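hey can u check if this looks right to u? its 216 residues, i copy pasted from the old doc so theres a chance i mangled smth
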Amino acid sequence: MKVVTAEEMQLIDRITIEKYGIAGAVLMERAGLAVVSKINELFFQGSDNPVGAIHELPLQKRGNLKIIVLCGGGNNGGDGLVAARILHDQGKNVEVYLAAKPKDLKGDAKINYNAAIKFGVSVLPVQRFLTDLLPLTPYPCLVVDALLGTGLNKDVRRPLSDVINKINELSLPVISIDIPSGISSDTGQIMGCAVKAKITVTFGLPKRGHYLYPGA
């Protein structure tokens, strides 16, 4: 099995875009589709893979599952916005909490934010996630972590550290995109705090942090 560092994965992505002409927006769309495929497999298609108490619900009642997508301001957040748009278009109950000002988004993340808005996805500031009484929702919940990707190289600070701590306190099933937010993709170390994900959907090749303690 080939395992890469963040820098090596960035190089592979750059070669894919510049040498082979596959646009970054296409890579982001494929990443979002992979996340949606895993969510549908685990929660809407009768998978036997146990992921929290949601599996105790009959399939016909999982249609009310609320999917909370937490998006950062970078490409990891862009992947989350793609997933949220596709899930919304499939008729799923989706809500996005964005940990960046829309005007500060750039590149493919900005493109997919605009697309999500045009599709009618509910996008709220991440401060709302910190104040909303999510455990009291009448629907079962799933959290999609798209806050921080493989490029993290310093400790997580507030407000993102508050968001991560709340995710962990909620004790809901969590699917992380690429790597759980707060884990160093090169060393597996916890960078101040980190999301405790039940499932991680990664792309291209696995990263060192997927296999090194304590991130593994």
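The CA atoms of residues 168 and 193 lie 10 Å apart.
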